[in-house]
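for the record, two folds in this file. i put them one after another cuz i was lazy. first one right below, seq on top, structure tokens after. the second one comes after a little note so u can tell where it starts
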Amino acid sequence: MTVYISQKEYDSFTNKLADFEKDREKLQRTLGKIMENSGSFASKTPGFNETEDQIKILNKKIIDVKNLLGQSIIIKDLSKLKKDEITIYSLITTVDINNKKIKYYIQHDSLDNKKDFVIITPLSPVGQGLMGKKTGDEIEIVIPRGNLKLKVINIEKKFL
């Protein structure tokens, strides 16, 4: 599966991968010290299981980021994306059933926060519900708090 990604996000994920790998190395050294000092009962030593669990979590994150980067094509020109359809790097203006405007921006990394819109990923429930929709479409998205009913009123393509 091809994943379109901006250079900024690609660089951000590359930096995260390096950080994850450094953190894993530190945890592996810690685990080694625990094992060295505890002999054959390492798993009963305080900190062993927690450290091992943290390494497993980091290993999954490393695999996920490597997979994303391996499938990525850096996109520099948004004209390659469909203009009339919600895709990655779309700023979408919607209205809910109470006629309240809600703006969403779709990118791969949802850690940034903006005041005038919500950043979501394409794989989040709202992101999945919006992807492929067009101006005028009405959608209902199942989210943990209940159902979210939206109407798409505008789509813009932009890099943040």
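(here's the note) second protein begins now
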Amino acid sequence: MPCLRAETLLTAAVMAALVAASGCEGEARPPDPAVQVSVPSAELSVRFDVAEGRPASVSVLGFRASAAGPNAPDVLGLVDPLWAAAPDQGCALHDVDQSVSAMSARGESVDLEELSGVGVGFGPGEPLVRPFPRLFPDVAGVVGGVVAEAAPQPLAAVPERLSVYSAESELPLAELTVPALPRLLTANGAAPTSGMRIDTAEGLTLALANAAGGLVELRPYGATVAISCAVPTNSSTEALVTIPRALLVHLAHTRGRIRAAVPVSIEVARRLRAREPLAGTGARVSVEVRSAMAAELRP
């Protein structure tokens, strides 16, 4: 009798183990939060710079990226801070160093590889621009590798359209419209002039023409921080962008000291982004037109 009871208990234990095993087999195990995933992407950016008294210029940047970590960062904004995403509305403060430090703390990284064989054309009479490989400087062990880049090249004028080519075809893979550049009309009521001094004790109000869907940025020289403001897409012919003093004071804190006057670049831009059949699996093509004016903010 005792032997029979022991055999019965052993059989029950085996059956329970088999049931538990079959139950676990059919259930999806939750992902391990410590496991990092690699997110591949490809970017081609084309920027037109317009400055009064100088010919327009164009620069091209292309790369493939492999981002390791639980988050998908804005890789283009890390590689080229001028491409940092604008806020959905209002104004926001961007700090490139802070973004990189946060990625490092999370154990994330981005490896870059040049996007080769791509060319950008701007119409009859303008040469085809092809970016060439360049070593991208390692940024705090977080972002590094190789990109393809074409330094700023002069143009007779900003074209209305551009074409993207591959190395294998003489026909364009894609054609995109170049956005129209918004125009800065006044800064705190005064007509904009290069090097102007602006009293910002009550904040800064910029009047812009044809700026719907565009953006405004204030970039202090020699600093990694910037203020970016979005212009609503439903804005009328003339739009007002107001940056409060509470946000402007952050520009005066640079490298542990407060400056009485802040030399900045006031920049107005408009962007277009589209997914195009480049790099095999496709790439995001970003087109931007931008103007910049030097000024001095006096808090």
